[in-house]
Amino acid sequence: MTWRSEYASVVTRLRRAREAAGLRQADVSTAIGISVRHFARLESAEIDPTALTLFAWAAAVRLRVCLTDMSDAEARSA
User: Fold this and answer.
1) N or C: which end of the chain has fewer CB within 10 A?
2) How far apart are CA 22 and CA 56, in angstroms?
3) Cβ atoms < 10 Å from Cβ of 65
4) Which residues lie below 8 Å from residue 17, measured CB to CB, with a gap of 6+?
5) What is the pTM of this model?
């Protein structure tokens, strides 16, 4: 899995968590201090978030960002 496809999976997980929590894009964007338009662009993966925004976004939908070690094979293909 490339970092880009892994990122797309993270964005999908964040969107699904928002929807499952019954939150609107406006709710999350307000919680993390950005405009709804900017948030919509993040959620569609049109633009990439900063690390700080990613952590705030995850917290707003009750998720936690967790880093894990790559296998040797994954590291070689990254």
Assistant:
1) C
2) 18
3) 13
4) 61, 62, 63
5) 0.84
> How far, in Å, CA of 8 to CA of 6, rounded?
5
- How many C-beta neighbours within 10 Å does residue 55 have? 15
Tell me the two tokens of residue 32.
């993390």
**Two structure tokens written together for 19:** 């929807």
- Least Cα distance to 45 among 1, 24, 23, 14 occurs for 14
Measured CA to CA, the distance from residue 47 to residue 53 in angstroms comes to 12
Secondary structure class of 59 (helix, strand, coil): helix
pLDDT tens sequence across 39-68: 999 999 999 999 999 999 999 999 999 888
